[in-house]
Design goal:
alpha/beta, Multidrug-efflux Transporter Regulator, Chain: A, Domain 2, Mannitol-specific EII, Chain A, 8 strands
Length: 238
């Protein structure tokens, strides 16, 4: 989804003047077409997360769970951050000496369908890294495609991997990466929603603390559930 200057200002809780300032000074990713400025929603989320800029809950709520095809309906748990993380799994001591070997290890661990072409998926992730790093700073990277990774999965997954060895990801802050969140979804709209929820979680000091300390799975999932409880559901009238 393309966003204009007004949309970006609203979602990042700043003035339109500040958006123009960030384009000039902080390299906010913007595209110019026929004299008009617009943003890619996924790129805006990546930038806000890497820069420590708070995002509006509205950027999460704009994707209505009831309108997304290919994902189970009902409680909406299929679209929750904690649900996707629980399905994707939390893995410790993941091996790898460089970016390609680490990403291969991650894909080997992810609970993908038996007929999944993991080699092709690895090529997609590496091609994305060649365009620009998914290392958002503070030792965290979010490997995914610039065009969302859409796979034949019934529900979206986020796999959290803690690496044995810190890896150079050419992150925005120059720091090596020790933690990866990898997203695979059934469609592009779900991908954007989960990326939004992950960005929201990474702005939460308590969530960052449990990640930094590499606490047990149960503690991380408990915090992820708390994050979900702080995000209004699409059906919320409050």
């Amino acid at each position: 989804m393309q966003l204009n200057i007004r949309d970006a200002a609203k979602l990042l809780h700043v003035s339109e003047k500040k958006i123009y300032e960030w384009i000039r000074e902080r390299k906010l990713p913007a595209n110019q077409v026929s004299g008009r400025t617009w943003f890619n929603r996924a790129e805006l989320l990546e930038w806000a997360t890497s820069q420590g800029v708070n995002i509006s809950e509205e950027i999460i709520e704009t994707t209505d769970a009831s309108s997304i095809s290919g994902v189970g309906s009902g409680s909406g748990s299929a679209l929750s951050f904690s649900g996707a993380l629980e399905r994707g799994g939390i893995f410790y001591n993941v091996e790898g000496d460089d970016k390609p070997s680490v990403l291969k290890s991650v894909l080997d661990l992810m609970p993908l369908p038996k007929d999944a072409d993991r080699k092709s998926l690895l090529r997609v992730l590496l091609a994305r890294e060649e365009l620009s790093s998914t290392g958002i700073g503070k030792g965290i990277a979010i490997p995914h495609s610039r065009n969302p990774i859409v796979f034949h999965v019934s529900q979206p997954v986020i796999s959290l991997c803690f690496l044995i060895k810190e890896i150079d990801f050419c992150a925005i802050d120059g720091e090596p990466v020790h933690t990866l969140f990898t997203i695979v979804t059934p469609n592009a709209r779900v991908h954007l929603q989960l990326l939004s929820r992950l960005a929201f979680a990474l702005h939460n000091p308590s969530f960052n603390k449990v990640i930094k300390q590499k606490l047990p799975k149960e503690e991380i999932l408990k915090m992820a559930h708390r994050i979900d409880s702080n995000i209004k559901s699409p059906d919320s009238t409050g």
